[in-house]
Amino acid sequence: MSNLLRQMSAEVLSPAEFADYILDYYNNPTEYGIDTDSDYYIAIEEAYGYIKEYYIWGEWNISQVRNTQVYKDYINE
Question: For the chain, how many structural domains are there in total?
């Protein structure tokens, strides 16, 4: 999954950037031309599933996102 998520950016994203991208791509796949049946979107859905509980009142708990396995896998890919 993490290698598919690396397609989001040429550089490794910070936890805040990662969370914002996942949320944005999850909520707006057609805006970015992402096929919702693709492996890429499925990876986005899975990543969102791991971090969504840390999005409270419109704010990310960045330290929690940083400590998720999905983010750790993403930065170590």
Answer: 1
